[in-house]
Amino acid sequence: MGAINFLNLSQISGKLKMITLMIADDHQLIIDGVKSTLGNIEDFEFIGEAMNGYQVMEQLDAGLRPDIILMDINMPKLDGLDCTRQVSKKYPDCKVIALSQYDEKRFIKRMLKNGAMGYVLKDAGKDQIEKAIRTVMGGEKFYSEGLSIRLIEQELKDENISYLFPRLTAREREVLSLICKGLTSQEISEKLFISFHTVESHRANLMHKAGVKKTAGLVKWAVENDFIE
Question: Domain spanning 12-156 has what CATH number?
């Protein structure tokens, strides 16, 4: 007797396990395109869509529980980076796969650190996206073809992209750590036994390197770029 295809056996027994999906992207055209591309896969079912991270969290908070969330990175209000972090903490059973146009190390690294189980480029074909979903459903991580090579290449170029990961002096790291703990410049001055004006100078240099104008932005930058945990 010939082998019975697993999918057909599931259909015969009436126990086909559906993989439920949600997609988050700020372009409806992308949402519609992905749903159309994957819509004819028999055990895939889209149960939600969102155009920003807030909409994702609203639906999850209301009880929606997709197996997989295909998450764009660059979205308004709440981006995919922060949304992935929140999903991973509050709803760990909902697995996130980044579906992004960005193949830069900084985005890949942040998404994976924030809990994404996969990273797929938007120019990937149907077969690769399907493979990513099934791989993550199996408990393993998945990366688009070529991403490992790109990561290695960018590791070698890190010295030439200091604007992405600026080098900080030991003292700047100390000051940054204390800023992130909520200390004022005066408190940092007293703790490190340096002048108030020196602390302010370090703060200004840090903000310049981070490309931000406010302390909140500096703290966020420090966390996202692994200068602090």
Answer: 3.40.50.2300
